[in-house]
Structures are given as structure tokens and as C-alpha cells.
Amino acid sequence: MTNGQNRYILAIDGGTQSTKVALFDLVGNEICAHTVKLKPIYLYGDDRAEHPDDDLWDSLKLACQTMFDKFDGDKSDIVGVGLGSIRCCRALIKQDGTLASPVQSWMDLRLSRPYEHDDDTVRYVTTTTGYLTHRLTGEAKDTRSNYVGPWPIDPVTLDWYEDGERFDSFTTPREMLFELVDPSSILGHINAFASEATGIPKGLPVVSTANDKAVEGLGAGLVNDGTVLVTLGTYIASMMVGDENRSDTVNYWSNPGAVPGEFLYESSGIRRGMATVTWIKDLLGEDVTKAAEAKGMTPEAYLNAIASAQTSPGCDGLYTVLHWLARPTHLYERGMIIGFNGTHKGPHMFRSVLEGIAMTMKNHAQAMCDERGVQPTKIIVSGGGSNGDLFMQIFADVFGVPACRNEVNGSASMGAAICTALALGIYKDRSDAINHMVRIRDVFEPVPENVTLYNKINETVYKHLAPQTEALLKASHEIFRA
Predict the structure, then answer these.
(1) CA-CA distance, 88 to 231, in Å (whole number)?
(2) Cα–Cα distance between 462 and 362 in angstroms, integer?
(3) 3-class secondary-structure state, position 112
(4) What is d(CA 81, CA 260) in angstroms, rounded to the nearest whole number?
(5) The whole model's pTM is what?
(6) 153-171 tens-digit pLDDT
């Protein structure tokens, strides 16, 4: 095994709000990266949510081009490309590889139903990873581990159903579906079109990953020892890993993992989770932005600092219920901030949102652990929100276990790099790759008195807020739906 110098992996991490491209060396150091913010999801009608135009591909091109402008190494030292992107989306592709219509976001209610063919220009129906694979390589192949939802796929074998009643119930013609490959295997190679568009050298192997949450789990170094991963994205989830594909669970479900034979266990989550943090930042206005600029800080870092200095655990009874995006089956749900008094100011609202996220995920994760018959031993927190020390300490205190933050806390890009290292035989297995590429940056220990306070708040108040207000929100929903 080499020390990883002068050999690089290009990792693609496509999300709901941004596309990140990063170069890693073979021992997990992030050499160079660039992130391009996506356009806001276009919401219209009663059920539509789309990525405008060709935003996923356009952002990938720009991210690659800008990253290479920063890179002072030799492109010929790049050995492969790991392709990760958002799950639970649907891409309809023409014969020439372009989109027949904008990519349907996971927030689009059409994704809760099988594809209905009503456009003769559509040649393929696939996922975001399938679409980007076709763009990069020209191949009609996709990872079998990114098909979550109403697709004609066998949940055990992860192969397409054979023609027949089970397949026909999904209404997608077989010839419109891509060939499925295992995660951490080669999909194809960068073609001339993609090389010219992105700057990625022609001929490099493009490697399959999995659904974005499984890729995050791998990149965070998640192992089956009671560790819980909390990923802070537009959708916030808590996850564990194992080797059982369970279909009879209540408080979590099994997803395909990022390596063959692995399964990711995922609790319920928070829709538009970190988007709520962005919302509260924007709501507090330009004063926050200007004050942050004056101190040379990002607005999020500034809010973390003033909330640490000006608020205390529990926010003196100010609580946030994170239903900023209702579930398709519970359209009456609404977000709430409840418990204001005259002393509360912007920093209290900010901290209350962070505490609401942590308590919601604690309850979801604990339900998953209880059903699995295990106790959480520590948590890993990934995503941009984990850069805030206040948020990390809140997680440690609410969960009552150490909260870890990795050196590379955008773990989906690291997971894509690990998948590539495995596909190319750089490391022999998952454990070997994690040991070489994933490192903990710091650990936040729970403060006992805060653990006691948050547990009392959660058990006696917070858990009951949504059930106690459900009837009122249903009545309100009926008024405005009429």
C-alpha cells in the first residue's frame, strides 16, 4: 500500500441544495474542493417539486471547472471518480442523454407513485446517479443501491423484478430502465463529451456508490458497534449499519448499503431540516449578516457564537417543532416555535431550532435503537451544521453520549472516495478503507447537568407538543384547503 501521495480520487457529492466536488489523496486528505449552490427547488401545483432547468449537471460542470482552477497538481494523477447524488429523485431522459423534463425532487409527491409514461420523448427512467452516469460515461447503468421507493426492484436481491405481475404493477417499461450494478464497482469511463464539459480527464473510471445516506454512513466511518450517525442536510436522518435486511420493523427501515452485503438502518427524520436553520438565519435579517462580516465570520458561525454567549440550555422554555415540510401522509403538519416571553430574542430562536433538531433526532434514534435491542454508545455528526461547536455540544447533551466530528465532516464526498478506492482495489475491504481514510477531529463530551435538563424537557414537554396540537392543525388545514 502506498502512502497516497500524488494519487487522487475525485469525489462527487450531489445534494438537494448544492453540488460538491472534492479531490482526496488515498489516505483521506481533502486536497481541493469546490461547492456550487443549486437553484431553489421549484414548487408548484399541489404535488410538484423539481430541480430547475438542468441544474444537477450544470452545477457539476461548474464545480469541476472551478475546483480544477484551484488544483495545482497533475490531473494525470487522478485514478478514478466516485459518483454520489441525492436519492428518491426521478430523472426522465431522452435518447440523446438530455432531460425530457426537470429532475423530480424527493419532495415531489409524484415520487410516492410509480412512474406513469405520458411523454414519448422519454427514453429512460432513472435516478440522479443514473442520469449523471449517462452524462459522464454514455452508459445506461446505475447503482442498484439508489433505488428507494416505488421502483420495480426486488428489495432482497436488488435486481429488477422479472416480467410478470409484480413488475407490471410498477408501470415502468423494462426497456426504459438502466442496467444495475453493485455499489463500489465501475460503471464506465469518462467520455469525450464529459471531459470537455467538466475538465475531468477522459478515460477515468467512474465508480458507483449508493443512496446518499449510505454513502454518508460509509464516509463517516460508521460501524456496527452502537454508533449512531446523524447527518445534517436538507433531510436530517439518524442511521446505523448492519448485515440484516429487515422488512418487518416499525421505527426504522433498511436501505441498501454502500458496499455489497451491507445494509443501512435509518430512523425517521426531519424534512427541510437544515433548511430551517437557513430560514431562521434569513428571518433574523441583514443585521446578522453585517455583524458577521464585521467579525470575519459566516452568519451561521456568528449565530452560534452569540447563542452560546446569550442563551442557556432549554432557552427558558422556547421550543421548536420541526414540521416545516409536512409528510405526504400528514399534510396538516406545520412547524411551530412555542413558548415565547418578553426576554426571548433572535439568539434564543436560533438555539431553539438547534435544540429542536437534536431532541427530534434523539427520539427517532432511540426508537430505532430500542427496536434493534442496542444502546447508543456515541454519535457521529456530519454535514455543514456540525461545524458549529454549540450544535455539537447540544447533540452530546441531548443524546447523553459523546458526539464526534470527523476531519472531513461532509462525509458523503468521503464515502464516494472510499467506494472508488474499493472498486479500484486500493483497499481490501470496507474496514481497511475506513482505517486509512477516516479520522476523528474532535469529541464533545456530555455535560451531566445539561443531560438531566434536556431529558426532563424532552420527556415531560417536547415529546408531547406535536400530539397535543395535532387536532388544531388538522382543523386549520381544513380551513385553508377549502
Answers:
(1) 17
(2) 11
(3) helix
(4) 19
(5) 0.85
(6) 988 889 999 877 777 777 7
Cβ(365)–Cβ(238) below 8 Å:
yes
E strand or H helix at 69, and its extent?
helix 55-70
- In 127-194, the DSSP E strands lie at 141-143, 179-181, 186-189
| Distance separating the N- and C-terminal Cα atoms of the chain | 66
pLDDT of residue 1: 39
CB 110 within 8 A of CB 39: no
Decide if 347 contacts 353 (C-beta within 8 A): no
217 grid coordinates: 454512513
* CA 152 vs CA 123, 163, 258: distances in Å: 17, 10, 20
Pick the range with the lowest mean pLDDT from 124-138, 243-257, 363-377.
243-257
**pLDDT bracket for residue 2 (50, 70, 90):** very low
Q: Which of 237, 256, 224 is nearest to 411 (CA)?
A: 237
Whose grid coordinates read 423484478?
161
Ramachandran sector of residue 49 (left: φ over 0; alpha: ψ -120 to 50; beta: rest): beta
CA distance 474 to 482: 12
39, 83, 96, 15: which is closest to 410 by C-alpha?
15
